[in-house]
Design brief:
Layout (H helix, E strand, L loop, with lengths): L11 H6 L2 H39 L12 H23 L3 H7 L2 H26 L3 H19 L9 H19 L6 H20 L3 H25 L10 H8 L1 H16 L4 H7 L2 H13 L6 H56 L15
Helix pairs in contact: 2-11, 2-13, 2-14, 3-5, 3-9, 3-11, 5-8, 5-9, 6-7, 6-8, 6-12, 6-13, 6-14, 7-14, 9-11
């Protein structure tokens, strides 16, 4: 049910009828169409991923605007308003057929429930971190996240990760130990954010449905508990919604849009891109978060923090170098394969036309008769 998937229907009968040369041409056209479709899917996934991570990188500017609402209330509003926003979008697009198929596959439904639970933990902790002066700590979690994503991407074994990614993952976890050495306990905020979002990405990859449909299912699972929590806060007079003016109410209601857009984009990217590519894109969000934490929120950067971040950045540099090297090798392999395919098609075309020339009927010319006297 992934977006943009296409099936190339061959016209083998017509090709066969028109001779072997037509069959070869039809096969080459089908391969070209398939390669073009795959390239289009990858480009679309890359665009979706960039939009998602850019929004997540700048969202620390948004959460403080929602105070005095607590992190729990903001999270509940996020669930309720996201469900409303996605429901309206699906109503406008008339895309409901996926629900019947999803209900017919309990495994997918269970995986989406797990994804909803994991992303709830991730976003709740992230909102709390930003509104309590831990933006830099949160950014470390999202810097580590690509390393955790790659670690999950090679699970289960047997094959161990290649030397460069494996070294980068080990260096990232060493950075966590260095970061915690100066302050006592490990940076639990960073660890929970990294692991929870990596697991979320892995589960979404296995579900393999469109971003909008996936978000609709996740928010449907979370809607009633979130609404019940907001009603509970209202009964205790602890609900900030409606007590700070219309502008504050509008900001809380807009959590649905602010949350839904990047999640939809991430869901669309997750089914189009490999986990390793998602790991590379994730550098965008923590970079923005780190810069905001240091330059805008003026959070402290003691030596152990700089040491931990330096190790993580070194690990990510190693990882990026390995990814670029692998990409160059892949492009070279694709070029060689394309050249080999072109040669094979040319040989097939020559072989197909050869029998026609060989079996052509010979033309005999009768000897001219001399005129009689």
């Amino acid at each position: 049910m992934g977006w943009g998937r296409s099936t190339v229907t061959g016209t083998g009968g017509a090709g066969t009828a028109s001779g072997g040369n037509g069959t070869a041409s039809g096969g080459g056209a089908g391969e070209a169409v398939g390669a073009g479709a795959a390239g289009g899917e990858s480009r679309a996934g890359l665009a979706y991923g960039i939009v998602a991570y850019a929004i997540w990188g700048l969202v620390p500017l948004y959460w403080p605007l929602l105070k005095p609402a607590s992190a729990g209330e903001i999270l509940a509003h996020r669930m309720v308003w996201s469900f409303a926003f996605v429901g309206l979008a699906l109503l406008a697009l008339r895309r409901w057929g996926w629900m019947k198929e999803l209900l017919a596959h309990p495994r997918k439904l269970g995986l989406l429930t797990i994804a909803a639970t994991v992303i709830t933990v991730n976003w709740g902790l992230y909102i709390w971190s930003v509104n309590n002066g831990h933006v830099v700590e949160a950014s470390l979690g999202y810097f580590i996240n690509p390393l955790v994503t790659i670690a999950l991407g090679v699970l289960p074994p047997p094959p161990p990760p290649p030397p460069a990614p494996g070294g980068a993952v080990a260096m990232g976890f060493a950075a966590v130990l260095v970061r915690g050495a100066g302050t006592g306990p490990p940076p639990w905020i960073s660890l929970v954010l990294a692991v929870s979002f990596a697991v979320y990405g892995l589960v979404k990859k296995q579900v393999n449905i469109g971003g909008l449909e996936s978000l609709a299912a996740e928010t449907a699972v979370l809607f009633l508990p979130a609404l019940g929590y907001l009603l509970l806060l209202g009964s205790r007079s602890e609900l900030a919604f409606g007590t700070e003016g219309a502008g504050h109410m509008a900001l809380l209601a807009s959590t649905g849009i602010v949350t839904a857009i990047p999640l939809v984009c991430f869901g669309a990217a997750a089914i189009r891109l490999p986990l390793s590519t998602l790991g590379l894109l994730q550098y965008l969000a923590p970079t923005f978060q780190f810069l905001l934490g240091v330059a805008y929120f003026h959070e402290a950067m003691p030596p152990e923090r700089w040491a931990g971040f330096s190790l993580v950045w070194l690990a990510l540099t190693l990882l990026t170098w390995d990814a670029l090297r692998t990409a160059r090798r892949s492009r070279a392999a694709v070029t060689r394969a394309a050249a080999s395919a072109a040669e094979r098609l040319a040989e097939e075309a020559a072989t197909a036309t050869a029998p026609v020339t060989a079996t052509a009927p010979a033309t005999t010319t009768a000897p001219a008769r001399e005129p009689r006297g």
